[in-house]
């Protein structure tokens, strides 16, 4: 599997999240999928873990979204894949930049969050699958009502 196929899959996963097609996003993830959102706190001098789920935890999160009070409007992810490096015959690691833009109900768009994706990709099958995604945010103030993954 080449780097271009992996990058297309990462872009496709972002499009699925933009559309809130969470089932479609999960189809792009492996059976042992893990997801976390982390940010380094200079005040604490350490990394903070804001969210950490396995595949079932993510599916439960998505199932509960309709019951949460959420920010109104839409999110759009701008993803740029920086590198795809092979670990071995079955795995690759991809590093990407991600910008999350929020557009409110009045049509005003603002940068909401900036960070990176660190993805572990299973390349053994016909199509690549995300095994692990670590989102490392630079942004540390997201405000209330954010329940969708970055």
Automatic annotation (TrEMBL):
Taxonomic superkingdom: Bacteria
Gene3D superfamilies in alphabetical order: 3.10.450.50
Signal peptide: none
Single annotated GO MF: oxidoreductase activity
UniProt entry keywords in alphabetical sequence: Oxidoreductase
Protein name: Hydroxylase
InterPro entries in the cross-refs: NTF2-like_dom_sf (IPR032710), Rng_hydr_dOase-bsu (IPR000391)
Family listed: Belongs to the bacterial ring-hydroxylating dioxygenase beta subunit family.
SUPFAM superfamilies: NTF2-like
């Amino acid at each position: 599997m080449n780097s271009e196929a992996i990058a297309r899959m990462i872009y496709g996963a972002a499009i699925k999240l933009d559309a809130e097609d969470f089932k479609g996003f999960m189809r792009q993830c492996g059976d042992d999928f893990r997801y976390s959102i982390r940010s380094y706190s200079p005040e604490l001098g350490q990394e903070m873990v804001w969210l950490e789920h396995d595949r079932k935890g993510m599916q439960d999160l998505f199932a509960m979204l309709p019951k949460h009070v959420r920010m109104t409007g839409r999110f759009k992810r701008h993803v740029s894949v920086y590198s795809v490096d092979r670990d071995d015959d079955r795995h690759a690691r991809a590093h990407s930049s991600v910008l999350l833009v929020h557009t409110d109900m009045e049509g005003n768009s603002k940068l909401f969050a900036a960070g990176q994706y660190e993805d572990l990709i299973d390349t053994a099958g016909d199509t690549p699958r995300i095994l692990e995604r670590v989102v490392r945010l630079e942004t540390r103030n997201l405000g209330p009502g954010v329940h969708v993954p970055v």
